[in-house]
């Protein structure tokens, strides 16, 4: 059977990385002046890059040294699309997974969406945490007028007001969905577009779906099996 696994933040919780909507979640805690939904936008990066980069660094990049857990290891030889940007699936040995929302250890040039652009290693080792905002602006080549197209850097992350492009492997992701005989969703709240795209394809192709989560989101589809448990229990069945 050609099984496709689609994972969310719940998979990385056992690695000490907060989920998105829990008490200490990424989308629960914002900056002093903005909510996370306001912070994680291209508009914020363009108009207040220092605030954006400081928030992104504190809420995501500080977890860059965390290691994979046994669920990541179990997924290492599976066909996988992850919504997580932590890179832990790669650390666990999966060589061909899709990180559909980007990765914290990568950057690109700031570019118009849809343009072809290279993905490079993020220069987080250069950051001076004692002078965080100024240091980040300098490293990301951002002057007083904000980020410049094809000159400044941008974290390799898909923001709320951006759309899926082939920079994030959306074409290959959809091909994997279309080819699947079964989809297994692990640790996701189904609150982002990629899960809705996958569910629409599952419904269209009448394929089996499994939902794995301690508090699984129920979806409108008659071929769903729910596993109300952590991913660590699911893989040990």
TrEMBL record:
InterPro entries: DHS-like_NAD/FAD-binding_dom, NAD-dep_sirtuin_deacylases, Sirtuin, Sirtuin_cat_small_dom_sf, Ssirtuin_cat_dom. The keyword Mitochondrion does not apply. Residues 1-237 form the Deacetylase sirtuin-type domain. Transmembrane segments: none annotated. It is an enzyme of class 2 (transferase). It comes from the Bacteria. The keyword Oxidoreductase does not apply. Keywords: NAD, Transferase. Signal peptide: none annotated. PROSITE patterns: SIRTUIN (PS50305). One of its GO terms (molecular function) is NAD+ binding. Its EC number is 2.3.1.286. This is protein acetyllysine N-acetyltransferase. It comes from Pseudoalteromonas byunsanensis. The lineage of its organism: Bacteria, Pseudomonadati, Pseudomonadota, Gammaproteobacteria, Alteromonadales.
